[in-house]
Amino acid sequence: MNKHSSPPKWATQFLRWFCSEELLEEIQGDLEEAFYHRKANHGKWKANLWYISDVFKFFKPYSFENYSRTKQFMPMLKNYVKVSIRNILKRKGFTAINMLGLSIGITAVMLVGLYIHHELTYDKQFPASENIYRLVNNYRDQTYTCMYFSDYYDSDFETQLTLIDKLKSYDGVVDACHFVPNTSAIGPSNKWYVYVDDREFVREDFLFTNTGIEFQKLFPQQFLIGSPENAFSKFNTVVLTESTAETFFGKEWRYFDLLSKDIRLSDETFSIGGVVADLPGNTHFDFGVIVHQRRIPSWGGYTYFKTEPNTSGETIAYQVNQDIESIYPGYTENVLSKGVGLVALTDVHFTDGMLYEIKPIANSQYLLIFGVVGLVILLIIWTNYSNLSIATYAGRQKELGVRKVMGARASDVAYQVMVEAILLTLLCFPIVLGLVYVFLPGLNGLLEVSIQDTIIFNPILIFIFLGVLVITGLISGLYPAIAFGQKSMLRLFDGKLGSGKAGQVFQFRRILLTTQFFMLIGLMSLAAIIMQQMHYISEKSLGFEKDGVVFFEVRGPEKYDQIKSLVETFPEVVAVGNGIIPGAEMYNQLTYQMKNTDEVLSDGTHLYTSIGSMEVLGIQSEAFNLLEKGKDSVFLINETAAKKLAAIKGVSPNELIGETLVMEPEWENEDWGYGIHYTIAAIIDDFDYFNLKYESQPLLLEVHTDPDWVYNMLLRVNTDNWIETVNKIEEAYLQVENERPFDLAFLDNYIDQQYKKERNAGKLASGLTIVCIILSVMGLVGIVGFITLSRQKEISVRKVFGASVPQILAFVSKEYLVMMAVATIVAIPAAIYLANQWLESFAYRIEPSFWVVIFSGLLTLVIVIIVVIAQSYKSANLNPSDTLRYE
Known about the structure:
- It is a single chain.
- With 887 residues, this protein is α+β, with helices and mostly antiparallel strands.
- The protein is built from 30 helices and 25 strands.
- The chain has a 15-stranded mixed β-sheet that branches. A six-stranded mixed beta barrel has the order 18-19-23-20-22-21.
- α2 (21-42) packs antiparallel against α3.
- The radius of gyration is 36 Å and the shape is globular.
């Protein structure tokens, strides 16, 4: 018969799969007869549909192949559970060890999963977050995460809103807003005195905006007191978070009439417009106080707009660029302006290479590595649980044999094993929840995130927890179910382990054990390389002195001079200066060139500083002698800049001394025509002004005796009593400054903080490695016990032929040497690859060595040999006659 005239083949196969044999022939014949009749009268397409419909109509219990067994399953399941509980309680030691290993491992996996989920869901809590975008400004060869105001710091209210008003006028734009967090790179970055009911507080977590209603529409906050309409209906209002309200008014803040109260920020009074819930930690901005005022105290703002679902952000960015002259007069005439771009809100946390980001962005390599580590731990859990289960059931074969004597089928034994495995994992659920709750604050502190503990009780998360535990039970119970469910009664009663399907599974589990060793060695190697890199960073010479250097904020040369005159009288203070503070994140770079050359470089960092700061940092140059002879300032460049400029001009670097460098040559001015002209007085050695995530940058230093702009004070201090010295410095500061709180920092700590995230990632990797070692040792105990039991006869025969205990132990350990060698060889490229991925975030880094992997392999081997010898020693000392008499 023509196959094209037959009923749908897949429907017929489905019928044969579920239908009982005694009913199949009759039902299939009737359905096919009806199919051909319908095909002749109505066509093949309708006949196919009727045939498929008829097949599914017969998908009912009475026609199932195993219906009789299905009816028995629920009562049997109850019996499986009872027997499982009895066995679990009977073997308390095994149960405790297994539950401990499972709980520790699953907890580690869940914590890693929570962190990855926290990072991947950044800013997704806002409604229609996929339709919210941030505008960014492309200038020179860099991209700024903020948009500037056309008159910068001198912009009035209307000027600051020019871009916002233009965005809101476009079709498809729902709304637009901008704001500036105080602690961002473009914010005031000050700690401020806040006065509440005659009480004084020091705060810095402010968010300034003059588009309050629009901010609420794009980033809606949950108002606990007040409403957004009232809170942002006028300027000079503040909105507090609930934690800030508790700080200001105590835990009973809800019972106060806060909307009638005022707070004073510095010398300005603001009315409280509302209290909102604390912001989730996975938001790219943060605040404790929203300050709604007429002017944002900055030269620009972080600008966002929201589109209708059918409008793309790229369309709006294109319109902004078309109308750019009406927003920024003269924009197109500036050759350094490269246009306006945008970043989707949900991509902000993952977009690298932009200046002045509000919060540190996610490192995708870290997420990848942590994800791999979590998967490694999960795989180790599954293999370990299987190892321990098989080792346990190896001693329970007679029990399983009795069950078969009493009528149990192979599937019944398999079901019993599976139910017992799943039940044991489910018993770990409350323990896992408790451990996650206990260790979550530590994870938050270690990785500097804010994962709320309430997420643990999220129904979806609980479902995921249970799902992971059930899958763990299913996968881990599969091995013993296959190994012992298919064995005959006779083989169960004789207790032999090495043949049949059990032997096949055993061989496959050697592969799994080798894989586990590979993962453990790789993870140990990765943790070791991370720690090596962090040690290298902490020990690397930065080109300046950082020990004993402190700094704090001082605004204005007058206050600086007054404080300087006081602290210079302290015998502990060795040097005083103001200007550069090394160890910073990258900020805006400018263009420069040598006079009378054509090539313009755009990677220069201009440092405006004092001779005092050079003394504090221990940076030396003969050109500084010119300042002692009465010169007001000198201009220097570092070696990196000198090499680039000398190559362009075709001279040696030293020949640049005395030549003219033109900074920002595109800028037209009255003094020089174009650019700012500097005479190079000297070339200084490179020092790492930015942190070591960046390569050495061309530095253009303008060193003054008395700078006109002062933002901070640096002190080199030599003291054995830091508490007393810091108190003296603070007292001198407060004699002059009463508007801003005293906030002293140590330079070495400040630099160290730049690598805190990387260092903590190394600590987490080390902690997870320890978890893997513990789990691997627990699993190894089970597998060694299993192998030793399966080779008991072989060991006894070897003893009969004269083998000593050391020889037997060496024989048992030999196969582990082979597995470890294979695992180490495979781990070398994997560990080196992952290490290089992690090291990509550092400009200065070590080269991962394969010797680290080999050492990790040897260390793992030592652990394995200790476990093997400890587990095999008893069997090696048994009297052969006690073993062979039953053979």
